Automatic annotation (TrEMBL):
<dbReference type="GO" id="GO:0016757">
    <property type="term" value="F:glycosyltransferase activity"/>
</dbReference>
<dbReference type="InterPro" id="IPR028098">
    <property type="entry name" value="Glyco_trans_4-like_N"/>
</dbReference>
<dbReference type="Pfam" id="PF00534">
    <property type="entry name" value="Glycos_transf_1"/>
</dbReference>
<dbReference type="Pfam" id="PF13439">
    <property type="entry name" value="Glyco_transf_4"/>
</dbReference>
<protein>
    <submittedName>
        <fullName>Glycosyltransferase family 4 protein</fullName>
    </submittedName>
</protein>
<dbReference type="InterPro" id="IPR001296">
    <property type="entry name" value="Glyco_trans_1"/>
</dbReference>
<dbReference type="GO" id="GO:1901135">
    <property type="term" value="P:carbohydrate derivative metabolic process"/>
</dbReference>
<feature type="domain" description="Glycosyl transferase family 1">
    <location>
        <begin position="172"/>
        <end position="348"/>
    </location>
</feature>
<feature type="domain" description="Glycosyltransferase subfamily 4-like N-terminal">
    <location>
        <begin position="9"/>
        <end position="160"/>
    </location>
</feature>
<keyword id="KW-0808">Transferase</keyword>
Length: 377
């Protein structure tokens, strides 16, 4: 059973629905526990699992008996939770039903020690804690009250199939026109939630410097991400970005595309994908762009350098707009370079970040078959 009692919507909340179909394909019966009416509950249902629901996290604790009865009825012996606040419930269930195996994925990257009495009790019930990158694993080793062998790196994975190019040239041009990208322009995109910390302002400032770094380059910027709180973004921050676009004189040069369910097709419309997040715990957007075979510029911080090995993309300082302008100018002026980077990125995605690889490693952990220190390398 995957437990995710969150009313938000981001990579963490999307995770259970991402892996449920592959878990089922590999022969596992998946179940879910989510907040009633949440996007998480909706996504689980779409993925093929009607989740058990609870009105709130507090009510979930009071309904521990009901949840235990559900676990017994369905013969569930593995719990996997994804928010530290959900660990209270999961640890309680494991304490009340000895034999339950409890797994926890740290999707966010812990920022402070968790070694007080409560955390020692809760994490003491955890069979395995998964770190989604080596960068977060190193922080987890210092922060959590667990021995090193119970903290393991497990890179996230995605279904690569939807990201393979499908559009013919006329369809691709139609897609680009919808984003206000003119024929012959280099489309430079930044996909992801429009919230502070994702580097949007540095990217915009870098775009404003492009006319100096590459005077002959004709380009158009595309911001892809929800514009409302319901779509996972910070509405005040979105308004701030719109003001910044105007201040930098980029009106007409940058499109706010909003939330798009057809992200793989939008990638086809782009020539360069930028991910300037300052401290990404993993960088799912990077992997999606790699799967799409795009030329990528990522922040030289957090886990992103682990993903973009030499030859599969470029890195830039997330604090320096000029570094982003230079990287965008370099890729923007060289179509052959973009093609080489995109091919290398796709190959790396296939060998390292396929959802089947991720779930195979995961179910080997569920069944107790993995004993090596690092799950994938």
């Amino acid at each position: 059973m995957h437990i995710c009692l969150s009313d938000g919507w981001g990579g963490l909340e999307m995770y259970p629905a991402r892996i449920i179909p592959e878990l089922q394909r590999q022969g596992w019966e998946a179940h879910g526990l989510a907040l009633a009416g949440s996007r998480v509950a909706e996504s689980m249902a779409v993925a093929g699992v009607e989740p058990l629901t609870t009105p709130s996290r507090g009510r979930a604790l009071l309904q521990a008996g009901r949840i235990l009865a559900y676990l017994r009825r369905h013969g569930i012996d593995v719990l996997h939770c994804h928010k530290s606040s959900d660990l209270r419930l999961a640890a309680l269930l494991a304490a009340l039903r000895p034999g339950l195996k409890l797994f926890f994925t740290d999707h966010m990257g812990v920022t402070r020690p968790k070694k007080d009495l409560y955390h020692r009790w809760a994490y003491g019930r955890v069979t395995r804690l998964f770190s989604i990158s080596e960068a977060t694993r190193q922080r987890n080793l210092a922060a959590f009250p667990l021995p090193p062998e119970r903290i393991r790196r497990l890179y996230l994975g995605i279904d690569l199939t939807p990201y393979a190019p499908r559009l013919d040239e006329p369809a691709r041009e139609t897609q680009r026109r919808e984003l206000s990208v003119a024929p012959g322009q280099v489309a430079i995109g930044l996909p992801g939630r429009l919230t502070d910390g994702k580097g949007h302002e540095v990217w915009l400032e870098g775009l404003a410097l492009l006319h100096e770094r590459a005077p002959g380059l004709d380009w158009h910027g595309v911001l892809i991400g929800g514009l409302t709180a319901r779509e996972g973004s910070d509405e005040a921050y979105v308004a701030q970005l719109r003001r910044r676009v105007a201040e930098l004189g980029l009106e007409g040069r940058v499109t706010f595309a909003g939330f798009r369910a057809d992200l793989p097709r939008l990638f086809e419309a782009l020539d360069i994908v930028c991910v300037p997040s300052r401290n990404e715990a993993f960088g799912l957007t990077v992997v999606e762009a790699m799967a799409a075979g795009k030329a990528i510029i990522g922040a030289d911080s957090g886990a992103i350098p682990e993903l973009l090995e030499a030859g599969s993309g470029h890195l830039a300082d997330p604090q320096k707009p000029l570094a982003w302008a230079d990287a965008m100018a370099k890729q923007g002026q060289d179509a052959a370079l973009r093609a080489r980077l995109g091919q290398a990125a796709r190959q790396r995605a296939e060998t390292t970040f396929a959802i089947s690889r991720h779930v195979t490693a995961l179910v080997e952990e569920y069944s107790g078959q993995r004993n090596d220190e690092s799950l994938d390398g």
